[in-house]
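Section handout 9: paired folding examples.
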Amino acid sequence: MIQNRSFSWVIFGFFAFATWGKVAPSQAQSASDLRSTVAQKYERLEGMAANFVQVANSEFMEGPERFSGSLLFSGPKYRIETSSQTIVTDGKTLWVYNRGEKQVIINDLNSDETSFSLTSFLRQFGAEYNTTLGPEEVRQGVKHRILNLEPKRGLSQFRSVQMSVRLSDTTITHLDIIDLNDVHMTIDLSDIKVNPKLAPESFVFVAPSGVEQIDLRN
């Protein structure tokens, strides 16, 4: 979906686990209940806005990589803003703008073997991952329940996924992820807005004056 490795995980965190509608805590007492709620509620989600903080680390990195910014999405369209980059797609064209280099790369939005498919993950994670409930925890003064995903087979995309689910409305506000390369990522979501009014121009990038444009579209 996105060629920048780190931002692909931002997309994962944002799209897959931002919020899924209300469910009473008593309804989320089993892993299967919570898992089903996530999968079902995603299908009803039309759009979202949120802020994020993502930290990635591994023994092969010089130190933790930290990204923070804002996210918008509506269906296949999304926009990610950080201090150094803007990534935008209208569902067909992808713009990656690097502020420091004063350069924007324009390309077709094509799926490949390195892409993450949110829809496929949500539809298949019950079959590909064993799901267990972890303990309750308190985040930002409110109760959460941890949902653990462990792969049933060795070829799954992640070694483990741990989600912190806010019990009052089944919003997932924190993820702890280890991928197949042993990269450890944490993602925190805040200021989540469900189905906000988003202007169409939010998903089209207009390059500022003086920015080099590299068009790689067919």
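Moving on to protein 2 of 2.
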Amino acid sequence: MLRKPNLPDPDSLSDADVVIYDGECNFCRCQVENLRRLDWSGSRLAFLSLHDARVAERYPDLTHEALMEQMYVIDRYGGRHGGADAVRYLTRRLPTLWIVAPLLHLPFTAWIWRWGYRQVAKRRYRLAGKSCENDACSIHLK
């Protein structure tokens, strides 16, 4: 049984950016728990597992396949930031990440960060151990 992280919910933080992550992935859950800790104010980020029914209701443009490929951040204005672009966005949004922002925003490096993010994302179940329900990992373990 997966341990459910104690994360702020978008229903209780209406002005927060929403981080959509794979809630059935150990690696992903650890990373969003780190993000929660980096949000010192506790009010900038709310979190939803891509497996939560509210994701399909609120963000019908984001397919399950797209969400399984990368994390998304939905900003307060409805903008979508996926994968490495979401990480880059968060370096501007969270003061605790400002120190790494210059590195991630160097001109002409976005393609490197996107490539690196894709490599980690497709191996995420192996990085922190397989922990899946209902065969959710099968596409990533091939």
